[in-house]
Amino acid sequence: MIQDIERIYGILLSRQYQKKLFQGLEGLRKKGDSHIACCPFHKDEHPTFIIYPDRPEYFCFVCGARGDWLSYLQLKTGKDFFGAFLLLASEAGIEPAAYDKSAWDDELSRTILLELMAGFFSTSLYSPAGEKELFYLYNRRYAMGEVEGSSFGFYPGYCQTREYLMSQGLTHEFLDTVLDAVWSRDAEEFRLTIPYRDTAGRLMGMIGRDVTKKGPEAYRALTDLSLLSDAPFLLYKHRGSEDLLVVEGLLDALLVDRIGLQPVAGIGKSGLSAGQCDTIASYGTARCILCVGSGRERKDLMLRAAGLVESRGMQAAFLPLGDEYEDLDHFIRATELKDFRRLLKKACDREEFMRGYMT
Asked: Domains plus CATH for the chain?
C-alpha cells in the first residue's frame, strides 16, 4: 500500500488544502491553474512564489526556495518534522503509522532533483538533439499541445544532464549521493522521457523510451520505480473519480488524459496488481472501466483485474476494443474522436464481455 504521507497529501490536495496552508501570504492570487504570492523567504515586492495545484510543493523562481508542505510548515511555524506531519495527518483525518524522517528527506531530495531534470528534458526535446524523438511523437499523430501537455522530454545523456544540474546550483556532493543513487547510468539510448508521479503528484520516477524499438523492450526505467509500484500512472490527476478508465500503456494513458473525455490511469503490461487496485479503491473510485488491449492474453488480464476490482467493492466494466486494434492508443489514432466517444458509451458488464470473449 502507499505510504501515509502520500495518502495524506493526496487527500488534502483533493480538498485544495493549499488554499488554507498558504492563505496568509502577501499578494496571494490565482494565476492559471496555480496560485502565486510574495515569497516568504526573501524580501519580495512582486509575487514570485508558486503554489502548485496538483502536488504538495512550492517554488520561488527568484530565490530558489523549493520544498513540500512539510518543509514549509517546519520553516514557517517552527514545528519539528513530526509536529508538522501530525498536523497534516489530523487535517486529512488519518491516524498515521510511524514515519521515518530520513525517508521523507530522501523522497524530497529525489523529487526536487527529478523536477529539475524534467524541466531540462522538456526544453531539450525541442533542441536539434531531440529532433528524432519529437518527430516520433508527431509521426504517432501527437499534436503540439498533446506533446507539451504530456510533459515528454529528451534525455541528452548523463554527463550533459549533470552539467545542467551543476549550473542550477546543485553541488558535487549532492549529485554524488542523490543523482547516482536515483538515476540509471546504462540507459543512454532511452532518450524520450516520461515523468512518473505518485498519487500525491510528487515526481518520483522517470521512464525512457527508445524510439527505434517496438514492444516492451522499447521502454526502460531510468530510475528505481519501487516507490511507485502501487501508484497507477496518472492517478494523481484523477483521484476519487467515480469512473476510472484503466489502460495498459503509458502512452495510452497520456493520450486519453490529453483528450480529456474520461479520467484514466495506466497500470503497465503485467496488468492490474493488488496494490494498485487497493490504491484506486482507497481514493474512492466507484467503477473501473478496463481496457488493456485485444487478444486472448490481454483479455485474461482484464478478467483477473475485474476480480480484484470487485473484491475491493468497486464495479468492473469492460471497454469492447475490437481485435483489429492492438490497444486503445491504436484505436484512437486509427479512428476519429467521435468514435472514441461512442466506444466509451459501450462499456459493458462482465456477462456481456464474456459472451464476446468466448467467441
From this structure: 4-99 (3.90.580.10), 103-227 (3.90.980.10), 235-357 (3.40.1360.10)
